[in-house]
Amino acid sequence: MDLVVRGARVVDGTGGPSYTADVGVHEGRIAEIGRISGGRRTLDAHGLALAPGFVDMHAHSDLALLRDPDHSAKAAQGVTLEVLGQDGLSYAPADDRTLAGVRAAIAGWNGPGDDIDFDWRTVGGYLDRLDRAHGGQGCAVNAAYLVPQGTVRAYAVGWDDRPATGAELDRMRQLVADGLAQGAVGMSSGLTYTPGMYASGGELTELCRVVARYGGYYCPHHRSYGRDALAAYAEMVALSRDAGCALHLAHATMNFAENRGRAPELLALLDAALADGCDITLDSYPYTPGCTTLVALLPSWANEGGPEAVLARLRDDAEAERIRYALEVTGADGCHGVPVDWSTIEIAGTADPAFARYAGTRLDGWDTARRLLIGDRLAPSVLQHVGHEENVRAIMRHRVHTGGSDGILQGAKPHPRAYGTFPHYLGHYVRELGVLSLEECVAHLAGRPAARLRLPDRGLVRVGHRADLVLFDPDTVAAGSTYEKPRALPTGIPHVLIDGRFVMRDGRRTDVLAGRSVRRTPRTPRTRPA
């Protein structure tokens, strides 16, 4: 054995009872579990739990993995795999025009990208870029990718609010198929973000049929988490049923005053669909506030035409007044149909240092919001304090639940979920509150996500599986990140391995770059039914 981990409490990712055993690692895989003698190296793990590496089912590290070889934001949490390309907007597939628009649209998620060499245009090219990041060494953790439907629509249709033509729909089908053939695990949508939100249900169904033929899954940020949340969830369930496509609901929450205490209604909807044979999973983060960009709250008509068109409308007093009225009086679709309460909107970060003083402050009204949007060229990110704890707990208990941080790493004061989601589950919701048992929680954070991604050799502590492992102290593990200090690292997670190599050892990040792209298992797509 290259390494023998001795005396660990093995929490294997199945949800079954934990047990004490040695775990032997050889050539990057788990080679033996039991009582093991010998080994080139040994690690005394008495008092520690050993679990499969955690899978962040909703990550926004698309540029961070290329920018930052350390990436302790995720590595220190025990995350060994992130799923990128979320919310329908990322950087592949794209041509030069599309890439410029997307970079501007999601600068609040990933930064403007001026420090990145965008030397790819395809999904396969982006995954290759991850593999040869940082001088060819790779990246900090593994990464899978979803074809972003909004980017695909921008590429084939543009940023206009109109139906796709037949030729444009064919082009989108081909772009999605190409991305899946090149290794994407599915397709994402951001249906409160432009231009993805301009797609009809029929258009989305056609694209999901392509996803289904390749064995991928559909991951929508659906049309409303506010006034029409239940109807929006029902639309996604019906769409996936019609397309015959597996469904994974992104950051499944029930937010705003309209939805307090209504999580059981969502879960009843899902239980009925599951009982009928639908393939559905979901992810959530263990916090009440949401996080997005300030521009995302605007009504969809204000975003039509792309970022430069948005800025032109904001500079026009009459158009800006129309936007304000939609936000404050009628409720913009970008704000989930609920009139905005500015006191719930906290600035997380800005791109321009001239506006850095606003980070960590609540907005005092539309005039300040408008000034920030124009001055920082749509880049401000925000926390939206609109969630409900009882809904958070009810959803995380569900049998198809998985963990996802939805972590935006940009800004002076990002949401603490970016640095704390996984230890917060283990420390607060397992040890302190008992909402989940330790074994159940690890299944939610590792075994179940790997099954959704159809990764046959990850997500479990099992002989033959990849040695992507995390060792933590169940009695002390906790998120260090808070709203005041959002980049503080967790405690109680001393060791993290990817392919049997230590990326965290004794609580410190090593210089190992063991992360690679994790691609959908190639297969010939199923023929469309007659």
From TrEMBL:
Residues 42-503 form the Amidohydrolase domain. InterPro entries: Amidohydro_3, Metal-dep_hydrolase_composite, Metal_Hydrolase, Metallo-dep_Hydrolases_sf. It holds the Pfam family Amidohydro_3. One of its GO terms (molecular function) is hydrolase activity, acting on carbon-nitrogen (but not peptide) bonds, in cyclic amides. It comes from the Bacteria. One of its GO terms (cellular component) is cytosol. This is N-acyl-D-amino-acid deacylase. It comes from Streptomyces subrutilus.
